[in-house]
């Protein structure tokens, strides 16, 4: 486990800025402590700095398949996977909420149709990165807006409004490949 290189940090922050904009600062300097990013086997972990220091003492005794804590794998280089739970405190600028019937479809890797769209942030532009939420405000994943907010109001129910990028179900679907 090591800190990200300057190039890796730049790549990760460029991709994240599509989804959360200037709020990237809130990921590192949070009111509940200082957090850091660490790379291990193409996975970027997001964790408290204190937890990282504690865990480094025990790292050599831990099997390779373990991770630090829960929900800490933030992204994976090379696969495009990102986990949205860590973004909730950083207030993404553009959000999409899907209806309960469309949640499972999105979590299986499909795009969001107009019929499954619950709400969308005002002034979302076409091809803007968005964070996809359930109607209960649970982050489900990431996408790219296929239509702007104004276009979403006029399209037919079977039109794609959000292109699927990554979701929290991706880890389970790819679990065999990771071990």
Walk me through what this model shows.
- This protein is an alpha+beta fold.
- The chain is 28% helix and 30% strand.
- It folds into two domains: 2-79, Roll (Nuclear Transport Factor 2, Chain: A), CATH 3.10.450.220; 92-173, PUA domain (Archaeosine Trna-guanine Transglycosylase, Chain: A, domain 4).
- The chain contains seven helices and eleven strands.
- It has a six-stranded mixed sheet. Strands 1, 2, 3, 4 and 5 form a five-stranded antiparallel sheet that branches.
What's the topology here?
Layout: E1 2-3, H1 6-20, H2 25-28, E2 29-30, E3 33-40, E4 43-48, H3 49-58, E5 73-76, E6 95-98, H4 100-107, E7 112-113, E8 117-120, E9 129-134, E10 139-145, H5 149-154, E11 160-167, H6 170-173, H7 175-178
Parallel strand pairs: 6-9
Antiparallel strand pairs: 1-3, 2-3, 3-4, 4-5, 6-8, 7-11, 9-10, 10-11
InterPro entries: NIP7_N (IPR040598), Nip7_N_euk (IPR055359), PUA (IPR002478), PUA-like_sf (IPR015947), PUA_sf (IPR036974), Ribosomal_synth_fac_NIP7 (IPR016686), UPF0113_PUA (IPR005155)
Function: Required for proper 34S pre-rRNA processing and 60S ribosome subunit assembly.
Keywords: Nucleus, Ribosome biogenesis, RNA-binding
């Amino acid at each position: 486990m090591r800190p990200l290189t300057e190039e890796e940090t730049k790549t990760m922050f460029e991709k994240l800025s599509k989804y959360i904009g200037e709020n990237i600062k809130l990921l590192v300097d949070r009111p509940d402590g200082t957090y850091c990013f660490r790379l291990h086997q193409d996975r970027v972990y997001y964790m408290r700095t204190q937890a990282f220091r504690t865990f480094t003492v025990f790292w050599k005794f831990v099997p390779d398949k373990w991770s630090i804590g829960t929900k800490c794998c933030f992204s994976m280089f090379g696969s495009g996977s990102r986990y949205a739970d860590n973004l909730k405190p950083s207030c993404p600028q553009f959000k999409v909420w899907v209806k309960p019937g469309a949640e499972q479809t999105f979590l299986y890797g499909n795009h969001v149709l107009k019929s499954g769209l619950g709400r969308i942030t005002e002034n979302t532009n076409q091809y803007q990165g968005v964070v996809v939420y359930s109607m209960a405000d649970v982050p489900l994943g990431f996408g790219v807006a296929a239509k702007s907010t104004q276009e979403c109001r006029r399209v037919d129910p079977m039109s794609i409004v959000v292109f699927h990028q990554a979701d929290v179900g991706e880890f389970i679907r790819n679990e065999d490949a990771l071990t």
